Amino acid sequence: MVDTLLPTPEWRSCNGPVSGRGPFIYAGCQSCIMLHVGKDEKAKYPFLPEAGKFLQDQGFSLAEFGTDPVLKVIVDKAYERIMAATRGSVYRSALVGGKATGDHTLNMEIFSFLIAIVLIKLANHNTLVQRFALNESRRAEAFLTGDLSDTQDRSRSDMARRIIHDVSGTQVVQSNHRYLIPVADYLIHSKSFHEREWKLVNREVDGGYIILKPDKAVRLVRHTLVTYITSRINKSPVPEMIPGFEVMVAQLVAEAERLTPKYVVTGVNPPCVEHAIKVLEGGENLPHSGRFMLATFLLSRGKPIAEIAPLFRNAPDYNERITMYQLKHLAGEKTGTKYMCPSCNKLRIQGLCFATEECDGITNPLQFGRRRMAAGDVAAQEAAGR
């Protein structure tokens, strides 16, 4: 498992693919500089290949974490790190001001991340992978924002830009306390956002670059952080069960199954709705526009909120209180205004349309069942008249 987190020869080439640009960052347009990954960076960003190598350099084997009482505190912290993700709460780091105060803190931050991956692989449930990756990306996002905006220590800003470049292929240019992202990259990463502030017309453009504040620049690439961490977990081999891990793994499996909604896709819903349900069932992150479509569709079909809410329980960022509030808001219980299901045309624009031949002629997903039923009635009548 640890081997998959180690740097490969490709990481030594700044001309390789995005996944092979590990130790480098483009500073400006011409020069390419090498950055040293210190202990603080390894603790803040334990998904970096250098952090994976740190465990190997310390000479520990995975088996020791299951039997050594001194190392058990790290295993407990790893378990807590995963459980925080299942609850939707960001893991509380032991770092102080983004710095490791000692070797104990350094070991705890890095080892607990790596052991958490081992526990997740042993539990073998996609729900845990998705939630953990999202939670860790949010943790990293907070550190990246702080590092990117540091005007006193340029090395921190350079490191943040390097990491953003590594995981997303996007070059963030720093110029006079401004942060610039190429328009082409901005359009790629912002397409999943539907809030007005992310529309290109609402952004300041200068010479082919979008000007963003540090927090917005980092938020823009959060989804690539999630993808990056998810990929590293999925590529890690499943180890043999480690003696001493059995109880924790069983508890994680039970938690993942509890979070997985039990329902059956019947085929009477339009393809866009069935696709949304399957995405949630797989523990993947359905975009807000997809959640809006699913919720408004089911509400319009007369489904009670109590039956709709469990469908979102497996979303990586699920929060029961927020989900119930939003469903009540969409149902009109908060404002008296009930929201309608988006049209097929709008869903096509948002990339949420998965039309089949049975969708022919409809302009809104709500028409799907009605059209099917009408067609069935006509067929029955024709058969009866023969």
Structural class: mainly alpha
- Cα(first) to Cα(last) distance is 67 Å
General shape: globular
Main β-sheet, spatial strand arrangement:
3-4-6-5
Unreliable parts:
1-33, 371-386
Give the domain tally.
2
Q: How would you characterize this protein structure?
A:
- This protein is mostly helical and about 375 residues long.
- It has helices at about 40-45, 50-55, 60-65, 70-85, 105-125, 125-150, 155-170, 185-190, 215-220, 220-235, 245-260, 270-280, 290-300, 305-310, 320-330, 345-350, 365-385; strands at about 25, 30-35, 175, 180, 205, 210.
- It has a four-stranded antiparallel β-sheet with strand order 3-4-6-5. Strands 1-2 form a two-stranded antiparallel ribbon.
- The radius of gyration is 24 Å and the shape is globular.
- The model is unreliable at about 1-35 and about 370-385 (pLDDT under 50).
Blueprint of the fold:
Blueprint: E1 24-27, E2 31-34, H1 39-44, H2 49-57, H3 62-67, H4 72-87, H5 103-123, H6 126-148, H7 154-168, E3 173-175, E4 178-182, H8 183-190, E5 205-206, E6 209-212, H9 214-220, H10 222-235, H11 246-259, H12 271-281, H13 288-300, H14 305-308, H15 320-330, H16 344-349, H17 367-385
Antiparallel strand pairs: 1-2, 3-4, 4-6, 5-6
